[in-house]
């Protein structure tokens, strides 16, 4: 007889998505036996954690209409991710009268999971394994670990579960995931393409499959997750086949502060005195990996080109004649098109849809129009009038193609990583099983 018994799926599910200077939280409950669609109760966000003043938002959606919404309230007491999470829990009880002990599952987005292929309940062993991977995702893993540590302390009776952005890409073939370096060293140190934004891609694949009324396994997609961190994914027969990010999120498309793909030797020229390379071993030791990664992760991207991380502002200034902003816009468009063209070849031209997602992909009419105009040579009809008013349309997936093409549609998908974690958690029996001893 097994010492584990299935438990009813009762209690609340909390999804936490920690960024380098932010924390997004969503709270869900299961209605009946519907594990496919957890009900969203409220959302919260904390921004500017590392660059005060910290802004706190708290939006109850399905609790009571009388509860006031809090938007961008300054909270000096929040100084790091741990105190941000604690402030949220305090607000949960004081503002909507929800006992934190009703939370039975906490889903944590962890950007880099190494070779983890499925979500795992966090133990001492998995915590330390994630900690070792922080060097490969310096902008995110450290923040997630801080929230995880706090959560285990203040919610000891809840499962803390790590959901990995890298897991979606476990299907990438070895010849695509491998780098042309000594494979003995590569395997020993785990040096290969992992890919990221996997929770977003998993949500989008499922949502687009429902929209097109096809099983996910029948779909070939090119998905553009375009935000302050940006990547592209080629989905072949419902599985990740290639993606633009690599060993770390730094490779591929440029972002708000990331360089994206560069000549690997550029950083040495960039930091060398007078821009000249010396082969003197003493000089060669002066650049540290942490310094190089800081430059490429935090001091590059379109902020280095324009002085701002706001792509909407960049677009407006480009349209007003700013040379620097026009270059940033065109550079980003060019890099996106590089991957779109390449992935069409990898999918043998058989593409059901090109999907825009992420903050920029979902909101930038101009970027969608500019990219769509270049796709006609690949058999797309371009974007139609629906592109202009997509922001005002309801639904998770919106078709902005010109006309009504059967294939090679251009879609927008409003991705939701927090919901994807809650949905996967709700559907997985292993997170709801309880030891018989707990029932006695």
TrEMBL record:
Binding site for substrate: 109
Annotated signal peptide: none
Pathway given in the UniProt record: Metabolic intermediate biosynthesis; acetyl-CoA biosynthesis; acetyl-CoA from acetate: step 1/2
Enzyme Commission designation: 2.7.2.1
Catalytic activity entry: acetate + ATP = acetyl phosphate + ADP
Biological classification of the source: Eukaryota, Fungi, Dikarya, Basidiomycota, Agaricomycotina
GO BP terms, alphabetized: acetate metabolic process; acetyl-CoA biosynthetic process
Catalytic center residues: 165 (proton donor/acceptor)
Cofactor: Mg(2+)
HAMAP family named in the record: Acetate_kinase
Keyword terms: ATP-binding, Kinase, Magnesium, Metal-binding, Nucleotide-binding, Transferase
Binding site for Mg(2+): 17, 417
Site for Transition state stabilizer, residues: 197, 258
Family designation: Belongs to the acetokinase family.
Record GO terms (molecular function): acetate kinase activity; ATP binding; magnesium ion binding
Protein name: Probable acetate kinase
Residues annotated to bind ATP: 24, 225-229
């Amino acid at each position: 007889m097994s010492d584990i018994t299935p438990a009813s799926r009762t209690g609340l599910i909390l999804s936490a998505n920690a960024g380098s200077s932010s924390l997004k939280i969503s709270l869900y409950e299961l209605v009946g036996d519907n594990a496919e669609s957890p009900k969203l109760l409220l959302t919260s966000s904390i921004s500017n954690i590392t660059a005060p003043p910290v802004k706190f938002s708290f939006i109850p959606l399905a609790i009571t209409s009388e509860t006031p919404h809090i938007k961008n309230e300054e909270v000096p007491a929040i100084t790091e991710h741990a105190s941000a999470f604690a402030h949220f829990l305090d607000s949960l009880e004081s503002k909507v009268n929800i006992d934190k002990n009703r939370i039975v599952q906490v889903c944590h987005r962890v950007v880099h999971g190494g070779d983890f292929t499925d979500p795992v309940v966090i133990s001492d062993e998995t915590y330390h394994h994630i900690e070792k991977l922080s060097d490969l995702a310096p902008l995110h893993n450290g923040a997630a670990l801080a929230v995880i540590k706090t959560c285990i302390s203040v919610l000891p009776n809840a499962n803390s579960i790590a959901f990995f952005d890298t897991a979606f890409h476990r299907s990438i073939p070895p010849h695509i995931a491998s780098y042309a370096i000594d494979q003995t060293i590569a395997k020993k140190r785990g040096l290969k393409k992992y890919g990221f934004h996997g929770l977003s891609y998993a949500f989008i694949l499922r949502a687009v499959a429902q929209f097109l009324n096809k099983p996910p396994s029948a779909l070939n997609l090119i998905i553009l997750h375009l935000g302050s961190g940006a990547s592209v994914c080629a989905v072949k027969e419902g599985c990740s086949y290639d993606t633009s990010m690599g060993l770390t999120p730094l490779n591929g498309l440029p972002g708000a502060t990331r360089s994206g793909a560069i000549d690997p030797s550029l950083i040495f020229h960039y930091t060398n005195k007078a821009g000249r390379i010396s082969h003197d071993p003493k000089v060669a030791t002066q650049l540290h990996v942490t310094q190089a990664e800081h430059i490429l992760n935090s001091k590059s991207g379109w902020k280095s080109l324009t002085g701002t991380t706001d792509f909407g502002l960049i677009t407006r200034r480009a349209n007003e004649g700013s040379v620097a902003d026009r270059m940033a816009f065109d550079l980003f468009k060019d890099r996106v098109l590089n991957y779109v063209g390449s992935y069409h070849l990898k999918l043998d031209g058989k593409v059901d849809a090109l999907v825009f997602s992420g903050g920029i992909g979902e909101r930038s009419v101009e970027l969608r129009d500019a990219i769509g105009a270049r796709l006609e040579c690949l058999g797309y009809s371009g974007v139609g009038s629906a592109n202009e008013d997509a922001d005002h349309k309801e639904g998770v997936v919106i078709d902005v193609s010109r006309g009504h093409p059967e294939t090679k549609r251009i879609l927008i998908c409003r991705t939701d990583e927090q919901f994807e974690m809650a949905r996967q958690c709700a559907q997985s029996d292993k997170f709801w099983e309880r030891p018989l001893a707990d029932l006695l």
